[in-house]
Amino acid sequence: MFESLQTKLNAVFDKLAARGRLTEQDVDVALREVRLALLEADVNFRVVKQLVARVRERAIGAEVMQSLTPAQQVVKIVHSELLQTLGEPARLDLSGPSPHVVMLVGLQGSGKTTTAAKLALSLRKNQNKRALLVAADTYRPAAVTQLEVLGKQIDTPVHSEGTKVPPPEIVRHALQRGREGAFDVIILDTAGRLQISEEMMRELEQIKALAKPQEILLVADAMTGQEAVNVAKGFHERVNVTGLILTKVDGDARGGAAISMREVTGVPIKYLATGEKLDGLEPFHPDRLATRILGMGDMLTLIERAGETVDKADAERMSRKLVKGEFNLEDFLGQLQQIKKMGPLTQLLDMIPGMGRMAQDLAPDVTDKQFRQIEAIINSMTPQERRDPKLLNGSRKRRVAKGSGSSVMEVNDLLNQFRQMQRMMKQMSSGGRGMRGILDMFR
Amino acid sequence: MFGLFRKTPAQQAEDEARIQASLSKTRQGFFGRIGSLFQANEVTDDTWDELEELLIQSDLGINAATALVERLRSRVRKENIKRAEDVRAALRDELLKLLAHPPLTNIDEPRMLTVVLIVGVNGSGKTTSIAKLARYYRARGKRVVLAAADTFRAAAIDQLKIWGERTGVDVIAQAPGADPGAVVYDAIRASQESRKADLLIIDTAGRLHTKYNLMKELEKVHAVCARQVHAAPHETLLVLDATTGQNAISQARHFKEAVQITGIILTKLDSTAKGGIVFAIEEELGVPVRFVGTGEKAEDFAEFDPRAFVDAILAA
Fold first, then answer.
1. Mutate which of B150, B210, B246, B265 to disrupt the A interface (most A C-beta within 10 Å)?
2. Closest CA in chain A for residue B163
3. Bridge partners, B237 (sequence order)
4. Does B56 reach chain A within 8 Å, measured CB to CB?
5. Are both A147 and A268 inside the same structural domain?
6. DSSP secondary structure string, A405-422?
7. Could you tell me if B62 lies within 8 Å of chain A, comparing CB atoms?
8. Among candidates A143, A257, A344 on the partner chain, residue whose Cβ is nearest the Cβ of B245
9. Could you read off the pLDDT of A168-226 as tens digits, one per residue?
10. ipTM, two decimals
């Protein structure tokens, strides 16, 4: 849906380049595009103004105006300014004696309860810490039950006292239990509230005074618009948040709100939450978020996802086969299935810079159908045929076509494509680079 | 327009008061400043720049904001408008034009069983909105049944059941993890037979519009409705958090493609958020706002009234 800033800037500078030397005014035209791109990404208006001013200062320098690739230079400057604003990734502060109290705060529907469970799981898996979840949201119907259910799913104890006990009381008891039970971390799931609700904010201050949390994390939806500034400011003024968690990052929101919130609070972004599965909590990578805000695709996530789904031993075995030119249809089928595990093809394309548009035009149905057809054809072959496609004579091809509900022509197409691929791979591996390098990405 | 006349004056006043009250913070915010912008006498180039900025600040979106300012500018030139007051009236007019749409009739039309499907991303406020909608129509004499088709999120079924008890409407549910299509099928059968309901409201799991499989699942739920009841779902409403930024357009587009949403419930209007993105959604996709949520209580809910919305926005 969004064109990348790079594409837009290319268009601007192409027009300008026809006239020869770039002037300050030319740079300003380009900066208009920068401003629009940032606004489209939901970066707050005031923050955009400051950012653009900083970019302008750097861009006016010889760097851009004499560059042969001014568009790239501008993007580079914007990217580095965004990086600077986003700051370094920070870890959860768990120094000093345990139990450490972590309090989650935020608007209704920002994802506090799910995030609380994700945090507990991540602490156990990655830092070997035992967490106690505390159900301090007595307002939203079934919020307590929700945390209890999640706690059971990740095998983590939940302290809950129903909905009749005031939240500060619940927290007081939970602290006691946390100390006695020798928990490492106590995670407080507070009710969602508006930063302008005096009564609710006072309750939050009460809980804070009581629990003295080491970390107060503002949980915010990546889809938040211009309002992010007021929300962050409101919470920060009342309880001094120590970090941010950006949720629902697996959608297609550009997440400019993160920039706004960083700018008004100055506290670091600690995690990005993705997906509804409870292992969906990632450390924050400023570089990826900056790239995403600029609409430049997300190659890193793609590569990482490949790393998650592709089995290492498999990949190594495959690369040896490739080098020797032993890659057969059975392996091909295996590869296809691995790609499928990574998600719908269109979603994958979306992450590759410049392919976003293509993903939009491609009907997911079509590509997935093609996938299925190839699978069906290969599945209709005997193991011998898969290992040695040369066996496939006319009669065998007819059988395969019949078995897979396709035509002989389609079987031939597949075989041709496969032979081409085999040839290409042999060439690449004899060149010593190429495919082996690509496969290294998957290790 | 007709939507306004159909309501009793008392109802209308009530709705207006709610929207006004909920937007009072907005009024002191940036949109409020649009009003004061025109109280200064001269209309200069700066006025236009500032106006565009303010519209963007309220999440109207760049395209909608720029287009609006352009239209307003050319209109001011053409009609030779000089007084700031008149410019403001023109702005009000343009904003209202963006929201001009046929009235909400679908739910109220007489038929055996009306089916309303509620969809949206996670955390937008679907379940709460359903409770409010149920209360709203129950108070207007409908026999309402709720279908708990969010079988995925932990405790979502419990949440709906609690609301059902509070508002006094029946909830048809199965176990967590059940097939949403099957829940809907059951709920329709029950509404038609044992419960004798005339309005069935279906709660679905929150899903990001980019999740292909989940959107397919939603299409299936939609298809189940269509198969069981003539012309159902009669309304498919997207629940949208007013604090959402530009992504709301993408949300609306994807949900429209998948299940042909017919309207929007704009929630959390009691926050400081302006909900200006609905102008962009109207302009780009032609999907109107039907209801607004203005607080946490079941009665904090009103039919969307464009005039009240725009007036509240412009009142300084």
1. B246
2. A141
3. B118, B263
4. yes
5. yes
6. T--HHHHHHHHHHHHHHH
7. yes
8. A257
9. 999 999 999 999 999 999 999 999 999 999 999 999 999 999 999 999 999 999 999 99
10. 0.85
| Interface contacts (A, B; CB < 8 Å) | 146
**Is there a domain that residue A95 lies in?**
no
Residue with tokens 């780009």: B284
Measure CB to CB from residue B244 to each of A40, A41, A223 and give the nearest one.
Answer: A223
CATH number of the domain where residue A287 is located: 3.40.50.300
The CA distance from B53 to the nearest CA of chain A, in Å, is 8
Q: How far apart are CA B316 and CA B311, in angstroms?
A: 10
CA-wise closest residue to B168 among B140, B141, B144: B144
Q: For residue B44, what are its two tokens?
A: 């200069």
Q: Do A267 and A357 belong to one domain?
A: no
Contact A339, A375 (CB under 8 A): no
Q: What would the pLDDT profile of A399-435 be if each residue is shown by its tens digit?
A: 999 999 989 988 988 888 788 777 766 665 554 444 4
Q: Is residue A208 part of a domain?
A: yes
Question: Structural domain of residue A330, as residue ranges?
Answer: 300-440
Residue A11 phi, psi (nearest 5): -60, -45
Nearest CA in chain A to B54: A45
**Cα end-to-end distance, chain A, whole Å:** 32
What is the rounded average pLDDT of the residues B23-30? 51
Chain B partners within 8 Å of A251 (Cβ)? 121, 208-210, 247
How many residues are present in chain B? 316
Give A327 to chain B, closest Cα distance, Å: 32
Question: At A9, which CATH number?
Answer: 1.20.120.140
Q: Is B123 on the interface with A (CB under 8 A)?
A: yes
A11 vs A6, A16, A40, A382, CA distance in Å?
9, 9, 18, 53
Same domain, A252 and A153: yes
Q: Is there a single domain that holds both residue A8 and residue A26?
A: yes
Chain A within 8 Å of B17 (Cβ-Cβ)?
no
> Do A108 and A200 sit in the same domain of this protein?
yes
Q: Give the end of a domain, one of A86, A121, A155.
A: A86
* Residue A1 banded pLDDT, cuts 50, 70, 90: very low
End residue of a domain, out of A240, A268, A291? A291
DSSP conformational letter for A390: G
Beta bridge partners of A215: A102
Which chain B residues in 160-179 lie under 8 Å from chain A, judged by CB atoms? Answer: 161-163, 166
Which of A111, A194, A347 is the closest to B123 by Cβ? A111
Specify the number of domains making up chain A.
3
pLDDT in tens, A331-388: 778 777 766 666 655 555 555 544 444 454 445 555 667 778 888 899 899 988 988 8
In a domain, A92, yes or no: no
Q: Residue B289: which H helix or E strand, with range? A: strand B289-293
Q: Could you tell me if A262 and A287 lie in one domain?
A: yes
Are A194 and B243 in contact (CB < 8 Å)? no
Residues A314 and A399 in one domain: yes
Termini Cα distance of chain B:
25
Tens digit of pLDDT for each residue in A393-403? Answer: 999 999 999 99
- A116 CB neighbours in chain B (<8 A) are none
* CATH at residue A310: 1.10.260.30
pLDDT tens column, B186-225: 999 999 998 889 999 999 999 999 888 899 999 999 999 9
Give burial (CB, 10 Å; 0-12/13-18/19+) of A128.
Answer: exposed
Mean pLDDT over A268-287 rounds to 89
A164 and A26 in a common domain: no
Q: Within an 8 Å CB–CB cutoff, is residue B214 touching chain A?
A: no
Neighbours of B240 (CB within 10 A): 29
* Residue A127 located in a structural domain: yes
